Amino acid sequence: STLVVMEKSSRAHFRNFVTPTNDIIFLFGSYFTALLIMLFQITIVLLIFTFYFGRDIMTNFKSTFFILLFLITLFSWLGMFIGNLFNSEETSTLASISISSILLFVSDLIFPLERMPDNVAYFARTYNPFVIGTELLRKTMVHRIPIANLGQELFILVIYLVIIFCVMYLAHKIMKRSYLLQWGGYIVRRKLRKQEKSNVEQELLKHFNKIKEVNYFETKDKKKIPSLVELLKYIKNIDHETFKYHVNEKGNDFSTWVNDVLQNTDLAQKIQKAKTKEKSVNAIEKGLKRYDQLVQKNAKHIKK
To answer: Alpha carbon of 67 to those of 64, 73, 105, 252, 264: distances in Å?
Structure first.
């Protein structure tokens, strides 16, 4: 489960999904990685078992190895299924430990099956893969029973393998589809935001460049100012009394004109906050720089 979650959280996750790799091959890549790690660990355990307890497992090594391979595959696929269900390593680890604990407690490892209630003991003997696996290993490693005499238990393990593989494959497909839809939705939303931003910029430039004469700014002495550039020159040259005529407690004529005629709400709010001539000039100069940037940006876009 940890390997699957690490794969899902890596930066190469999206690239792995969009490659033309078959899902079965992708799943078996994770499985063989887990298999190599588990074989290395089990080899150490078997060496300790052989030399410390003085038990020779080589006489029935083929049967033991075959059973171990079955069990490694079974629990690895179960872990991969859990990893596909959760998106964080913590939750997948917690789920793995919980399921493992249930399988361990409902087995003869801690409490004999004979002392359990009949229905629980029957469930453990028949359906618990941990009990079935330990019983098979006990028969091959301790009692040296050949694998040909273990047909019933092996048949149950094969059924478990088929069921868990199908469930794991289905979980992988659902997770992949959900991830691609989520990523695709993110791309679409980002594209729409860019398009919306571009539309807003186009509207700002449209109103900035095409001001009708009827919408010219009218000054205190009834002069008509046709553009924001001319308005900036006008504010720089007026005296304090004239500025207070346009900017007072009743309102801000400059801000109202920018908002209603140029349709630039952001610049209008900045001018509204400017209560002095110098701050108004500064706000309009920054607004004109922003317009210059929009002109350059849209000019590049048109060339492309």
So the answer is: 5, 10, 22, 85, 74
With 0-12 / 13-18 / 19 or more C-beta atoms within 10 angstroms meaning exposed / middle / buried, residue 300 is exposed
Residues 6+ apart with CB under 8 A from 259: 265, 268
Q: What pTM value is reported for the model?
A: 0.54
3-state SS track over the chain: CHHHHHHHHCCCHHHHHHCCCCHHHHHHHHHHHHHHHHHHHHHHHHHHHHHHHCCCCHHHHHHHHHHHHHHHHHHHHHHHHHHHHCCCHHHHHHHHHHHHHHHHHCCCCCCCHHHCCHHHHHHHHHHCHHHHHHHHHHHHHHCCCCHHHCHHHHHHHHHHHHHHHHHHHHHHHHHHHHHHHHHHHHHHHHHHHHHHHHHHHHHHHHHHHCCCHHHCEECCCCCEECCHHHHHHHHHHCCHHHHHHHEECCEEHHHHHHHHCCCCHHHHHHHHHCCCHHHHHHHHHHHHHHHHHHHHHHHHHHHC
Q: What is the pLDDT of residues 57-67, one digit of tens each?
A: 667 788 888 88
Q: From the CB of residue 284, how many other CB atoms can be counted at a distance below 10 Å?
A: 22
Intervals of the chain under pLDDT 50:
301-304
Give residue 61's pLDDT.
Answer: 80
Burial grade of 288 (CB within 10 A; 0-12, 13-18, 19 or more) = middle
Tokens representing residue 301 in the block? 């876009």
Instruction: Provide the β-strand partners of residue 224.
Output: 218
